[in-house]
């Protein structure tokens, strides 16, 4: 049976998964969802006995039914090959009496690679026969931009343009982007902050004249945002595979429930855990861990989503978010597909910054979701104690999750903490958490000191940046961004 998708805000227009992946966001501003989610369950015994690639094929085959089996197989093989530095792709390792699911073995050392190594391949297959070129345009506060560049570099029929706020990303994040290779990539710093970059990118997407000029030469603009179905679905695989690894290690018996603790920003990662549960994975609780921007903790505790608060810059920057877009999909499923109510809450959020869910919906949410938050001080203390007690080095995002997990009473189930970035990606903050005064030290000095202190090796992808040539020195003003995108389209698709 073909799985079809429609907007969370209206079920009138139905699209295939290929169309949903090419379009990204639904025309009415909603997110693509499928009413068939959960109708087909995965075979747990089969999942528990097979490897990551086979499970990825099963998951994608179940949720993206208009892709042929051979298309899915080649996407999976290409996305999770030697570009990951672990044959297990996302290895599960002990964390004291809990478990760490290492999602950072991809080319950019952050969990976004799991989805962004796959999305370009899914898009490339979906665009076949349409003859259109796709230019991905992304504003980034650090991690997403690099993962998108690495994912789309040299993928036929696509290009990728990334804008980052000049001087406001870490030394290492800056070099990761400025040294990006690939004939179809464009990178520029902008004079302004992340919000300025994001606002301009939205204007570029809404610019009808630019759109018409690009369409005339066969190019469409698209985004690699985490609301894309093609980013969400690949993330379901590692929940299934983590379960398989627990069974194989003898840590659980087939059928036993497991809790997952997830450092959360845009709610994409943890939502994939909910999808895994709907597909039949025995999930106990999904623990939503936030940093000081704890909109989600307050929401799950009180039922009121309230973004009317100051945005706080933390040492877990990829979770610094006040509007968790993917939550909209969960609301859809928790109301049994009530588009009207979802649309009304989202309208309230955009007009007033706040909405409140009724008790019955919150009851359903709390059946699966628990929550908690960690301040920067909590985060640093967790990095230090996990290192001192267990000899394991974790990054600040992972530490937010571990801190929240440790504070909760264990409910007697095995717990998996999702580890979303390699600690060396945030060398300075990790080193400082271990007690070193990092004043005056650049990113590489921190990397060296951390390596010397812990004996944990820095990943080659990051260490190699020291000698990599800067290929993208451009810095532009905000009003030059549109022209930069158009020039990139002309150059890449000439
Ligand atoms: C993006 C990101 C997160 C948050 O994931 P969401 O899917 O946005 O909830 C957490 N940690 C790291 C390192 C990230 O890059």
What can you see in these coordinates?
- The chain is α/β, with parallel strands linked by helices and 494 residues long.
- It is built from 22 helices and 16 strands.
- Strands 4-5-15-10-11-14 form a six-stranded mixed sheet, with helices on both faces. A five-stranded parallel sheet has the order 9-6-7-8-16, sandwiched between helices. Strands 2-1-3 form a three-stranded antiparallel sheet.
- The radius of gyration is 21 Å and the shape is globular.
- The mean pLDDT is 95.
- The structure holds pyridoxal-5'-phosphate.
- Pyridoxal-5'-phosphate binds next to helix 12.
CATH C-level name of the domain at 92-107 and 250-456? Alpha Beta
- CATH fold assignment of the domain at 92-107 and 250-456: Rossmann fold
Integer average pLDDT: 95
The helix/strand class is alpha/beta
Structural Rg: 21 Å
Number of strands: 16
Largest sheet: 6 strands, mixed
């Amino acid at each position: 049976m073909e799985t079809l998708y429609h907007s969370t805000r209206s079920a009138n227009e139905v699209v295939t998964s290929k169309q949903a992946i090419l379009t990204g966001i639904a025309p009415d501003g909603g997110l693509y969802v499928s009413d068939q989610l959960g109708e087909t369950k995965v075979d747990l015994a089969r999942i528990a006995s097979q490897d990551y690639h086979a499970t990825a094929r099963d998951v994608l085959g179940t949720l993206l039914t208009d892709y042929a089996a051979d298309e899915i197989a080649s996407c999976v093989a290409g996305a999770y090959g030697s570009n990951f530095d672990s044959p297990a792709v996302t290895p599960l390792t002990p964390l004291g009496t809990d478990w760490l699911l290492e999602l950072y073995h991809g080319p950019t050392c952050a969990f976004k690679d799991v989805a962004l190594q796959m999305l370009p391949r899914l898009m490339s297959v979906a665009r076949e026969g349409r003859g259109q070129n796709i230019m991905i345009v992304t504003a980034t506060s650090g991690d997403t931009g690099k993962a998108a560049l690495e994912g789309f570099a040299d993928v036929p029929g696509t290009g990728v343009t990334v804008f980052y706020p000049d001087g406001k990303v870490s030394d290492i994040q800056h070099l990761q982007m400025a040294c990006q290779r690939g004939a179809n990539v464009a990178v520029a710093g902008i004079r302004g902050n992340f919000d300025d970059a994001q606002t301009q990118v939205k204007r570029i997407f809404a610019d009808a004249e630019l759109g018409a000029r690009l369409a005339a030469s066969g190019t469409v603009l698209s985004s690699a945002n985490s609301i894309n179905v093609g980013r969400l679905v690949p993330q379901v695989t590692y929940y299934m595979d983590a379960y398989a690894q627990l069974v194989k290690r003898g840590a659980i018996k087939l059928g036993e429930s497991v809790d997952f603790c997830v450092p959360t920003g845009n709610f994409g990662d943890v939502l994939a855990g909910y999808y895994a549960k709907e597909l039949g994975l025995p999930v106990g609780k999904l623990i939503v861990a936030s940093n000081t921007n704890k909109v989600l903790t307050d929401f799950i505790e009180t039922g009121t989503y309230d973004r009317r608060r100051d945005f706080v810059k933390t040492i877990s920057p990829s979770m610094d978010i006040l509007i968790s877009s993917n939550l909209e999909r969960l609301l859809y499923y928790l109301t049994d597909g009530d588009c009207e109510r979802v649309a009304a809450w989202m309208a309230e959020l955009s007009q007033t910054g706040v909405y409140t869910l009724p008790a019955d919906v919150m009851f359903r949410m709390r059946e699966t979701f628990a929550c908690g938050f960690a301040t920067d001080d909590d985060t640093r203390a967790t990095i230090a104690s996990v290192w001192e007690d267990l000899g394991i080095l974790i990054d600040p995002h992972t530490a937010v999750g571990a801190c929240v997990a440790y504070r909760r009473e264990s409910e007697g189930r095995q717990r998996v903490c999702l580890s979303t970035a390699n600690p060396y990606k945030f060398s300075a903050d990790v080193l400082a958490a271990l007690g070193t005064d990092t004043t005056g030290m650049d990113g590489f000095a921190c990397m060296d000191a951390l390596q010397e202190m812990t004996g944990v090796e820095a990943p080659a992808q990051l260490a190699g940046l020291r000698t990599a040539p800067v290929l993208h020195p451009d810095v532009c003003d905000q009003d030059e961004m549109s022209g930069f995108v158009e020039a990139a389209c002309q150059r890449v698709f000439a």
